[in-house]
Each structure stands twice: as C-alpha cells, then as structure tokens.
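WP5 quarterly update. Target: Deaminase. Source organism: Amycolatopsis vastitatis. Length: 197 aa.
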Amino acid sequence: MDIVVVNHVTLDGVMQGPGWPEEDTRGGFTHGGWADADTDDVMLKAWGEEMNDSSGFLFGRRTYEGIMSYWNKKGGAFRDSLNSARKYVVSESLSEPLEWPNSTLISGDVPARIAELKEEPGDDLHIMGSGKLIQSLGAHDLIDKYVLSIHALVLGTGLRLFEEGFVPTAFKLAGTTTTTTGVVIATFTNGTRPKTP
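Structure tokens (predicted):
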C-alpha cells in the first residue's frame, strides 16, 4: 500500500481547521472553515478520483476524533461512507475497542507498524489532517504522495503542513488541476532527500 496525504493548504502552508469554524482552535486559531468557500465540483471530482481506489484512512487521534464527531453529527452520505471505510488511528492515549466502526488502533513503534502496513496488499491509505502524524511519517520516508489543494489565501497564523524541523525532501510534481475557484490541486510524489552542506 502507498501512503497518500490529501489536504488543503494556504499559500503560507497553513493546514489548520480548513473544514469548519470549530474544527481546530489550538493556539487561539480563529480562521476555521477557510477552505469551504473554495469547494467546487472540480475539487470534489479530483478528490473522489484520488480516493476511489482506497484501502481506507490513516489518522492521528485529534483528526480521527474531530472527523468522527463532526460527520456523524452532521449525517448524510459522507457519514455513511466514512463509517464503512477502514480506519487506522495512531494514538498512545486511546484504547480498543475504538468507538468509530471499522477502526484499528496503532501505537508503540508507529513507524515500524506503518512500514509493515505498507507491505500488505491493497490500494492507497489516505491521510487527511493529522499534521503531527505527517511530520513523523515524513521523517521515516513513509509517505509516497501528497495531493494538496493549494488555496490562494494567506492566513499568517496557524499550524502548517511542513512545520519547522520537517526533514528536507525534494518532491516531484506529478500533476496539477485548477478549480473554478482558483485552487490549484497539485500532486507531488516523494523524490530524494537533497544533499545539504
């Protein structure tokens, strides 16, 4: 299986709270829901095509709990598809059985467990949100592709996808799509670690 990140980011790299106002208010973040107005049919189609052949989702604890509570409360078809999907959640504080159907806990030596998971047969595993998990897996070369919806927006504050200390990595641009609202959906595959002096 390949590990694929599918996330919204601003021009200044912020990934925090794109979906709804109360999604993630850590650090006093008040711009939640910033990606919602830019969603159009082009984006929905691109994300749908990316996730058509999916073996499920890989989440950090905060994203797992946030999406579970939001979409189960909101209802609709998206809730049902998430409930039926296989979900792996990385956490040291949660314990099994997990509340959300079809969920498996990953703890302990997370990079080793994810490396084992990647060797199993199946389609891609998709990461949404989960910034700390992305940082951790990126440091171990465990992420194969990034599908980033880049919004023409600068927030100036908020948690960033590639925080300071992210391991230097050279990516390869594999494709782009531009939506009717000006979002550039860019697909990057993992390349090589650049040599640093």
